[in-house]
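#struct-help
A.M.: can someone run this one for me? Single chain, 194 residues.
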Amino acid sequence: MPDLAEVFQDGPFQKGSYLSRIIGIFNEEIIRIWAQDQRSSYDILEKRPTLYEEGKPYTLDFLLVQNGHAFVSEMKCEIQYQKYRFWKLTDPDQLDHHKNKKAFELFLRLSQDPSSVLVKAGGEIEVRGTVLVWGSASIDGIEAVKEHYGFSDVLTLEGCINDLVSWNNENYLRLLTEREEWSASLFSALRAKC
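D.P.: on it. Structure tokens below:
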């Protein structure tokens, strides 16, 4: 499989911007499909986790399960932002610009102490830890970020896609075919108006 970064960066700036927005529409669905595959290291619950502070709710992306333990998961997949600076996770400082958002602050707090934040998904959930999902990452970057923030795990969109391709996952292939057909129907309709 070609390096995804090359697909986005090969060509004019506008191409990368366009493709980043396209995949951003359904990249969470890719993670869900990955976690639903029996070969995945996680299962996924249908309901999203909601974190509470002073009664105010903050809903995050996924509630992953491994060996019966729940992990709150947040996805940050900034492909083109600041000239691809945040696509590949290599350093804990790359998360700094998210710290001023309350939901992410609670996510980080939960990473340090899983009992420090009330988490619900239909009902109250006992959480074992947190999982960050990033676009791509170096092995050293994953280890540094886990150590610095206390994440239980760091997954990447790129790694999940590689798994789905190697598994020949039917749901993933169906998703791609469907999105490709939707896009083709739009462009056909636009062309017909010329």
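A.M.: thanks! Strands lie at 43-44, 50-53, 56-59, 62-66, 69-76, 88-89, 118-120, 127-134, 136-137, 153-156.
D.P.: also worth noting: Residues 13-36 form the longest helix (24 residues).
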